[in-house]
Each structure stands twice: as structure tokens, then as C-alpha cells.
Design a protein that fits this description.
Blueprint: H1 2-23, E1 31-35, E2 40-46, E3 49-57, H2 63-78, E4 86-87, E5 96-99, E6 104-111, H3 125-142, H4 174-188, E7 197-200, E8 209-212, E9 215-218, E10 225-228, H5 229-240, H6 251-266, H7 279-297, H8 304-309, H9 313-318
Antiparallel strand pairs: 1-2, 2-3, 3-6, 4-6, 5-6, 7-10, 8-9
Helix pairs in contact: 3-6, 4-7, 5-7
């Protein structure tokens, strides 16, 4: 799917970017490519300010889903969360649609956030607590948020298009397909009451926020969906354990990181400690998700992070080896959880 999206964009890039420049009122020669994975990302200058432009294909998101993301961002901004502010096109619309033959790209833009990326020296308890507080604040606001219309409600976790990639796995992955199906059944059996389940970021790891003057600005809400709050808590840990200076089996880090993250979190939004015992379930969900994306898109050879991630991954998934061998029930009794 990602390859098809990128190929379609490349074949039509001149037309799409010409339309972007016209609709968002900037000079095309002021456009700079930033990259992107599931969408094409650029930045442009206009009236002395810098903005970020995204081009998202209809295979990945619908226009209504993107509006759902942008309305959610505005709600968070209005309630004190530091995120990137959406900006309207010349027409006054937040989303501009560029029609192609049989598909389309949605264009939308944001004020560019200021700040810097997280460094190795930033991995300290003070930041973990701030990180957790942002997560908790987002979840507390999610309990009160109502989209402006049913069509703008973001999708449920099991409706995420990335989960459909299981059908594209090769026959040699039949055991992984079976294990994945069993895992989804276990997750579907979990309760979804409002204190445990709601609209989450679903990707708030350390590469999706910037730091400035002690404040965290959260980026990239493209994956936001309805899921369990503990899923959002597990994802930062998942990616932290992929950092070489931390290591995938570092139990001391897990205890320190999670206790301080939860301390900040519980100051903003209380979570029943019983949910912490499900962190391994959501670590495993992200592990399945990445395995399916990397396998079906064939990107392991071209990306070092993906290549390292895939080492022994098939074996680990087939044999239900935990992402980290850690007893998360001990976090129920952690002394510094804001109690």
C-alpha cells in the first residue's frame, strides 16, 4: 500500500505540488521535502513563517478522517496541549482534495513547531514525568471530546488499514497469521468503558515530539484512533527499547521509565492499575503491526532500523516471546505514581 501511494504521488507530483502552492498560497520554489512514511511531508515559507504540508492518499485516509484529526488537534490546542495548529487553505478549508484518475490526495497544513528532537542526555526521570503528563492530559480530554459530527469521528483500532496487511503476508507466515488472529481475539475481549478506552494518539514515541524550554510539543496525529489508553502508554516504551543505549532487555530501564511516566500520567488522568498488566499485549500488537508493514512493503533492506528490528522477529512472533520479559504488575506498587 505504501509503495503504491508513493508511486502514485511520484507520477503526479508536479500536478499535486502545483495545486498545493496555489491552494495554500505559497511559492513552489519555497517548498522543501521533509520525508514521510505514510504520507508525503514538505515545508514551505509564507509571510515570514514556516509551515508543514502533508499530502495523504485516499488509500490511507479519507477526507473525513483527516478532518477528524484536525478537529481533534484544535480541541487539544483550545485545552492547553502543545500541538501543531492546523492552517486553512486560501479557500478557508482545512483540507484540499486533488483528484486524480481513480483516487485523490488530500492536502493539509500546520504551523511548524519549534524545538529540538530528544537527545540521549534527555532520557531522565524529569522528562519521563512530563511525557506521561502530556499523555494523561490528552486522555483526560479524550473523555470529554465529541467530534463535530459522526462522519468526523476517527476509526476504531481494529479498523486501522495497517491491520489488513495480514492478508498480504506470504504463505510462509501462516503461523504468524494464526498468532495474530488469536491476539486480536484476546484484545477484542477487553472492556471498553470510558475510563479505559477513547481517542488516543497511538504513536507518541520520542521521535514524535519536540522539546523547547521544558515543554513537549506533540507531532503527527495521523494515527490517532479509538483504543485503550494503556495502548498509548505501551507505545513509548516499545520504541524506547529499540534505542541502542537502552537495549531491548533492559528491565532496570523499564522499571525507572514506567514508574516516572506513570507518575506524570496519573497527575492528569487516573488509570486503574489493573490495565498496566496488559502492557505486554499492546507491545505485542505494535510488534505484529511493524512486522506486517516491513514485510509487505519490502523495506527491511533499505532501512537500517527496520533491518535490525526484523532480526529473529519471525521466530519471536511465532513462539510468542514477549517484547520485554518484565512483570508489569510490580508497577501497581510503584512508590512514585502520583498517589
Amino acid at each position: 500500500m505504501l509503495n503504491e501511494t508513493k508511486n502514485t504521488f511520484e507520477e503526479n507530483s508536479e500536478h499535486i505540488l502545483d495545486e498545493a502552492a496555489a491552494r495554500f498560497d505559497f511559492s513552489k520554489d519555497r517548498l522543501r521535502k521533509l520525508g514521510g512514511f505514510e504520507s508525503m511531508v514538505y515545508e514551505f515559507d509564507r509571510d515570514g513563517k514556516t509551515y508543514v504540508l502533508k499530502a495523504n492518499h485516499s488509500l490511507h485516509r479519507t477526507e473525513a478522517q483527516i478532518y477528524g484529526e484536525l478537529y481533534w488537534l484544535n480541541y487539544l490546542l483550545d485545552n492547553g496541549v502543545s500541538v501543531c495548529r492546523p492552517v486553512a487553505a486560501h479557500s478557508g478549508k482545512l483540507v484540499e482534495v486533488v483528484e486524480l484518475d481513480g483516487s485523490c490526495f488530500m492536502l493539509y497544513a500546520f504551523e511548524k513547531a519549534t524545538g529540538r528532537w530528544m537527545r540521549e542526555s534527555d532520557w531522565k526521570p524529569e522528562l519521563y514525568r512530563k511525557w506521561g503528563a502530556v499523555l494523561g492530559r490528552v486522555h483526560a480530554l479524550a473523555k470529554r471530546y465529541k467530534p463535530p459530527g459522526d462522519s468526523f469521528k476517527r476509526f476504531e483500532w481494529h479498523e486501522d488499514v495497517s491491520l489488513d496487511l495480514v492478508d498480504m503476508l506470504p504463505e510462509s507466515d501462516h503461523t504468524i497469521k494464526m498468532k495474530f488472529d488469536e491476539h486480536l481475539k484476546r484484545l477484542r475481549a477487553l472492556p471498553t468503558d470510558e475510563n479505559a478506552y477513547g481517542l488516543i494518539h497511538c504513536d507518541m514515541h520520542h521521535s514524535n515530539f519536540l522539546l523547547r524550554d521544558g515543554q513537549i510539543t506533540v507531532l503527527d496525529f495521523d494515527d490517532c484512533l479509538y483504543s485503550w489508553f494503556v495502548n498509548d502508554i505501551a507505545i513509548p516504551l516499545f520504541y524506547a527499547l529499540r534505542e541502542p543505549f537502552i537495549g531491548p532487555g533492559n528491565k532496570d530501564f523499564v522499571r525507572l521509565f514506567m514508574s516516572h511516566l506513570l507518575s506524570g500520567y496519573n497527575n492528569e488522568n487516573r488509570i486503574d492499575p489493573v490495565w498496566l498488566r496488559h502492557i505486554p499485549d499492546f507491545l505485542k500488537l505494535r510488534e505484529f503491526d511493524l512486522y506486517m508493514i516491513i514485510t509487505t512493503e519490502g523495506i527491511a533492506d533499505s532501512d537500517r532500523w527496520c533491518r535490525d528490528f526484523m532480526k529473529d522477529r519471525k521466530y519471536r512472533l511465532e513462539n510468542e516471546i514477549p517484547v520485554i520479559d518484565f512483570d508489569f504488575s510490580v508497577l501497581d506498587r510503584a512508590p512514585n505514581q502520583g498517589r
